[in-house]
Amino acid sequence: MKPNKTLTHDNLKTPRAAAVAGIVFSVLFIISLVLIRTTVSADPQDAGTWLARDLKTVAFAIYLFPFAGIAFLWFIGVLRDRMGAQEDRFFATVFMGSGLLFLAMLFVAGAIAAGIIMGFHTMPDRLVDSGIYAFGRAAVYQLVNVYAVKMAAVFMISTSTVAIRIRIFPRWMAWLGFILALLLLLSTGYILFWVPLVFPLWVLLISVNILLSNLKSAPASGS
Q1: What are the counts of helices (DSSP H) followed by strands (DSSP E) for the chain?
Q2: Residue 156 in contact with residue 181, Cβ under 8 Å?
Q3: pLDDT band at 42 (very low <50, low <70, confident <90, very high)
Q4: Is residue 218 part of a domain?
Q5: DSSP of 36-92, one letter per residue?
Q6: Rounded to two decimals, what is the model's pTM?
Q7: How far apart are alpha carbons 209 and 148 in whole angstroms?
Q8: Is 205 within the bounds of a domain?
Q9: Does residue 219 fall inside a structural domain?
């Protein structure tokens, strides 16, 4: 009799190239933030002059948001794969919850901003004075600079805590994550206008480290 074939040897495995997802997220998110920060005023009560002057630039920056979000989801998957069976339920819940909340608020902010741009195309002479612009502008500012940034800080804290315990990346990156997360938690948009860039830069650092470690382990696993 022929032995029964087992189905366990073909388990789905995370592709090594998935580590690139964090790099893609970082690059796209940094480009979006830089474009928006250099064209839109830091004051959430601005008069909306950027709508006529830099509309295409801001629209392109918002267009990148969904792709950055998709890449961030893959990055979360890469981190969970590295945690493996050592994943702690408590920190895994905080880790997943903060990451998904960060994405949700980022998407909502992008949708509101896109709505403002579409509204300007429909009624360019009345949008700013209608009150819709003031509400949408303030909502986007609060979502990105307050709530999303704070969730990013919680994500960094939970990820760094797990990293110290099971070493999914070097400890000095984890301690750096604690410091940068504290900066995000205590900062305000008016005082530190470029602080949100801290998060994608930290993700970029971790992603490069994971990618390099995967490339180093590839010859050993193949032999």
Answers
A1: 10, 0
A2: yes
A3: confident
A4: no
A5: HHHHS-S-TT---THHHHSHHHHHHHHHTHHHHHHHHHHHHHHHHHHHGGG--HHHH
A6: 0.83
A7: 25
A8: yes
A9: no
